[in-house]
Structure formats: structure tokens, C-alpha cells
Design goal:
The chain is an alpha/beta fold. The chain has 20 helices and 13 strands.
């Protein structure tokens, strides 16, 4: 139990002993840290509920709290606020427990449960671009949070690998290489094991074919026919399709690895095609399919809806299936194979309504039980400094690997004066660059748009990834010197200065921060915490000469504080999806 929870328990008992509802004893961090560390506003609510003077209530509760060893200062302030400061002894005692707890008192609420985190959403035959950045890094951070909370966290890239894009690629390859055996219906041998194209070829083939289809009606018709033929199981087209998948996956894995983003599952829309017919038959049997202008829909609107929720379209009038159909079939497969307790989808917020419809249809049809957690985090847009979606200088969509290279190059340029061997400097720049990119994104609330500012993100000052890592590296340097001088960590003592106490209080809030970040699916709260912790450490370090301290017990206490600070920073950085170098 963290200090704030302990205080709330004491306050609840104080309110109850004064004849009031114990729920009024909630204690929060002060919004006026210049006046106090914590505050309780329960007396104001009690005054309304019990028709009594708020100051009298506040003074009565404050008198009881003043006797508690958790507080060193309790004041009732007009018109009925209770201002509180924690006792230094209580703060130190909490950290003494935390320093031996690898989980920072965070409960493993997911133990024995599986969570599917659906993020990535890349399309085969196309390179990753900046539009894929947020899904990848937000999803990876959420997956790590799920794992930290004890879940068996399973990340699925959920590739776009089905539909017209495959027909376009097949027909384009057929035009360029008509003699390949994939197009010979009389061919009975084994198809080549080597693909007839590279990822570079595909990156040219698909956009050219897509553009051609818009201008060439005959080619477009051929592509639709090829798509249908593939979906009917044509062996040659299926073999060519497998080549597209394998070549694309190899390139995607390389680029995701560079982002330190890793998926347990590499499934796509094609994997769930075998489930669709039975699923649709079940919908029909239940009587939940409705015809609408020749199409089939599931009505998912509810009487209590405050906004219009259109029907979930599952089959077009021409018999084609849609994203909603494959998303529902994907849930069918996941229920069969993994029995997840929770689903978490990470996509562009423009898909909010799509997932609302899919989730409702999944529960209405019984694919999942009513209490199954189905959560969609719709993220905002990454914009350029002009406020518009991020583009290259020429106006095109920037490949993700080029964006990462730009960030690493910017960090390397800032390291010009750092005395490191060249190869180590390059490796260090890569580590810091990844942190700059991920922290720059994740420090913003995921649901909101933000401006990508390379100069700010790569800075070693301010609320940035490089600043956080610099703090970690500085702590590690001090700890190395302490070990060389034989200074060991010891019992954490009550703080003797305001800066030391603020550092201790912040260290004690880590567990609550992790829990809130998970519950709210809000990685930006981890960023906020480690930025504040870094600032608190910097202030403490500035005011205290740790390695020259003559009071050995105090010095050993400070070493313990540094070890705990480094461990909290690194743990939360890894939850965000990046690590720290040894030197910088």
C-alpha cells in the first residue's frame, strides 16, 4: 500500500470517528505544492451532505489526523480544506520496503489471464511509413504494461493481406512476367521456392498497379477477377500470394525490430477466411442479419444511445465481405485458440465507430460473453509543424525507417562534443534516438493529435527521451564511483531537506502511477512520472554532494535512493519500449 493509500485509510477512519461517511476521506496530491504536499476536500462535501459548517468538520477531522505518525503537519484551511504534509519517517519507511520489491507493490491482477493486443495493422506489399508509427509504439507499450500486470500478453500485428490489393499485385506481376508457372493452369509441378520479386520490387509494383486500376477499367476488372480466383483457392495464385507474404513479413520484421517492437502473432485477414462462412451461417440462424439495399447488416444501435450508431455492415450487396466481417471472424478465431480475458485494439481514432459496431456485434451474436473486455484506443494524428499530417518535404509519405534514421542522425549531431569512441557513439546515438522518437510520441496523450518536432524531441534538455536517459546515465556513473570507493547502500533514512523529501515522495508514487497508466491505457502518465522523477533527482543531486558526504549513514541512505531511482526509471522506460545506454 503506497503512502497516499495509507493516508486515505487514516482519513476515512477520522471522518467515520467524527460521524461522517468514511468515503469522504479521500486524499489527493496537492494542486498547490507551495502550500502542502497532499490535501483532502471531504469536509466541503460533508458540509453539503450533513448541513454542517465545513470548517468545523475540517477542524475535527484534522485534530484526529494530527495524531497519526503518517503526518508531520495537518491544517484546516478556510472554507474547509485540509492541508497535509507526510512525515519524513513514513516516506522513508515506504521506500525501505519498495527497494526490495521488484514490482514496486503493483498487484499482478492479470495472473492466469490472457490479453490480446491488436496493433501494427501494416499492409503487405507496402513499406511501413509514419502512419504506422503510433500504432506500433503505443501498442508495444500497452502490451508491456499488460505483461507487467501479470497477463499473458499476446501482440498480434494483424496484417492487411487480403482483398483487392492482392489481385492488383498478381495481375501486375503477370503482365511483367507472364511465363511464370503461377499463371499456367496446366502446371502440375512444385512452384519455385524463391519469390519472383524483392521487397523493393513490391514497393514499386503495388502503387503502380493501384494507380493503373484507377485509369484502366480493363486492368481493374482483371484485378478483381484475380482477387476472386485467389480467394477461391487457385493453387498458382495461392503460391504467389505466399511469396508476397513471406517477402513482406521479412521486411516488416526488420523494421519493427529496429523500433524494438515485437509481435507474438503474425496473423492477417487471410488467416480467418475459413471462419467466415460458419460465422455468417450462425448469424443467419440467430436471426440477427438484416437486409439493407441488398447488403447484410447487424443492427447494433441501443435505445439509450446518445449518438447515432449505424448498423454493422458484414456483407456487401455483391457478396463481398468487409473489415467488420474479418474483424469479427478474427475474434472467433481468438476465442477458439486463446480464450482471452481482454482485447485491446490500437488504431487511428477515425476507426472509433467501426470498433464500437464490431464490439457490439460480437456480444450481440454471442461470439464473446457480455462481460468480455473489448477496448479500443483510438490515437490522434502525428502532425508536422504546419499542423497538418506529417509529410516529407516534397509532400510524400515518409517511410518509417527514414524517420528513425533522421532522429538518430539528429541525436548523433548533438553528441559531437561527447568523448566516446566513434563506434560506441553511433550505437549510443541509435539507443538515444529510439528513446527520443518513442518518448516524443508517448509523452502526449494517445487520443490527441501532436506535433512532431525533431529539434525538441532530440534535445538533451527538457521533457524529452534524451534528458531521461541522461539522468539514468548520470545516476549509473555516481553508483559506479561509489562502488569503486567502497560506499555501500544502506537503510533509507528520513529526509533532512526539502529536495530529499520530494525525491522520496515521488519514488513512493511509482506503483500507483503504473496501475493508473494500465487502467487508463495511458503511457503518457509513465512519461510524466519519469520526467518529474528526473527533475526531482536533479534537484536533489544539485544540493547534495553524495560522494563527499561525511555522515556515512546518510551517504549510504542516499546510495539506496539512487539505486531505487535508477531502477524505477529503467523499469518505466522499458514499459515505454526503450532502454538506456551505459554512457552518453
Amino acid at each position: 500500500m503506497n503512502l497516499q493509500e495509507q493516508m486515505t485509510l487514516e482519513a476515512a477512519q477520522a471522518f467515520e470517528s467524527c460521524g461522517f461517511d468514511p468515503e469522504l476521506g479521500r486524499i489527493n496530491l496537492s494542486n498547490r505544492p507551495d502550500l502542502c504536499e497532499y490535501q483532502c476536500n471531504g469536509a466541503l462535501a460533508a458540509a453539503k451532505k450533513y448541513h454542517k459548517n465545513p470548517m468545523e468538520i475540517a477542524e475535527a477531522v484534522a485534530a484526529r489526523l494530527a495524531a497519526s505518525p503518517l503526518f508531520e503537519n495537518v491544517q484546516a484551511i478556510k472554507p474547509g480544506f485540509i492541508n497535509l504534509n507526510a512525515s519524513a519517517a513514513a516516506a522513508a519507511a515506504l521506500l525501505e520496503d519498495l527497494k526490495n520489491d521488484p514490482r514496486f507493490d503493483v498487484e499482478t491482477i492479470g495472473e492466469g489471464r490472457t490479453a490480446i493486443i491488436d496493433y501494427g495493422g501494416a499492409n503487405v506489399a507496402k513499406p511501413l511509413h509514419v502512419g504506422h508509427l503510433r500504432s506500433a509504439i503505443i501498442g508495444e507499450s500497452l502490451k508491456r504494461l499488460y505483461a507487467f500486470m501479470g497477463y499473458d500478453a499476446v501482440g498480434d500485428v494483424h496484417l492487411g493481406d487480403w482483398g483487392l490489393q492482392m489481385g492488383l499485385v498478381i495481375e501486375a506481376v503477370k503482365d511483367a512476367q507472364p511465363d511464370l508457372p503461377y499463371f499456367d493452369e496446366s502446371f502440375t509441378g512444385e512452384y519455385p521456392s524463391k519469390a519472383p520479386f524483392t521487397i523493393t520490387d513490391l514497393e514499386t509494383i503495388y502503387p503502380a498497379a493501384s494507380a493503373r486500376a484507377k485509369e484502366d477499367a480493363a486492368f481493374s476488372e482483371r484485378a478483381h477477377a484475380a482477387t476472386f480466383k485467389l480467394q477461391q483457392g487457385d493453387p498458382g495464385y495461392t503460391a504467389l500470394f505466399r511469396h508476397v507474404l513471406n517477402v513482406s513479413k521479412a521486411d516488416l520484421k526488420k523494421n519493427y525490430d529496429a523500433l524494438d517492437v515485437h509481435f507474438e502473432l503474425w496473423k492477417g485477414e487471410s488467416d480467418v477466411q475459413p471462419y467466415i462462412a460458419d460465422m455468417m451461417a450462425d448469424f443467419e440462424k440467430q436471426g440477427i442479419l438484416k437486409e439493407s439495399e441488398g447488403a447484410l447488416v447487424i443492427e447494433v444501435a441501443r435505445p439509450d444511445d446518445t449518438k447515432e450508431v449505424p448498423p454493422c455492415l458484414v456483407q456487401k450487396s455483391d457478396g463481398a465481405y468487409l473489415y467488420a466481417t474479418t474483424d469479427l471472424a478474427t475474434i472467433v478465431e481468438r476465442e477458439k485458440l486463446y480464450h482471452p480475458a481482454e482485447y485491446c485494439y490500437v488504431t487511428d481514432k477515425r476507426q472509433n465507430m467501426h470498433f464500437e459496431q464490431v464490439f457490439r456485434a460480437a456480444k450481440l451474436s454471442g461470439i464473446v460473453p457480455q462481460d468480455r473486455v473489448l477496448f479500443h484506443l483510438g490515437y490522434g494524428t502525428m502532425n508536422g509543424k504546419d499542423g497538418k499530417p506529417f509529410k516529407t518535404r516534397s509532400g510524400g509519405v515518409l517511410r518509417l525507417e527514414y524517420l528513425l534514421k533522421d532522429v538518430i542522425d539528429a541525436v548523433y549531431a548533438r553528441m559531437a562534443e561527447i568523448d566516446l569512441p566513434e563506434e560506441e557513439k553511433k550505437q549510443t546515438a541509435a539507443v538515444i534516438g529510439l528513446a527520443a522518437l518513442k518518448y516524443g510520441d508517448l509523452s502526449n496523450q494517445a487520443t490527441k493529435d501532436y506535433v512532431f518536432d525533431l529539434d525538441r524531441f532530440s534535445s538533451f534538455e527538457g521533457n524529452t527521451g534524451p534528458y531521461i536517459l541522461y539522468t539514468v546515465v548520470r545516476i549509473r556513473s555516481i553508483l559506479r564511483k561509489a562502488r569503486e570507493q567502497g560506499i555501500a547502500a544502506g537503510t533509507i533514512l528520513p529526509a533532512v531537506s526539502a529536495g530529499e523529501k520530494e525525491l522520496q515522495l515521488q519514488l513512493g508514487r511509482v506503483g500507483r502511477t503504473v496501475q493508473e497508466s494500465f487502467e487508463e491505457k495511458a503511457p503518457h502518465k509513465l512519461c510524466q512520472f519519469i520526467y518529474e522523477l528526473s527533475n526531482d533527482f536533479s534537484a536533489f543531486y544539485r544540493d547534495n554532494h553524495i560522494l563527499k558526504e561525511e555522515d556515512k549513514a546518510r551517504q549510504s541512505s542516499w546510495i539506496s535512493l539512487l539505486e531505487l531511482t535508477e531502477r524505477e526509471l529503467i523499469t518505466l522506460c522499458r514499459l515505454l519500449g526503450f532502454d538506456a545506454p551505459e554512457r552518453m
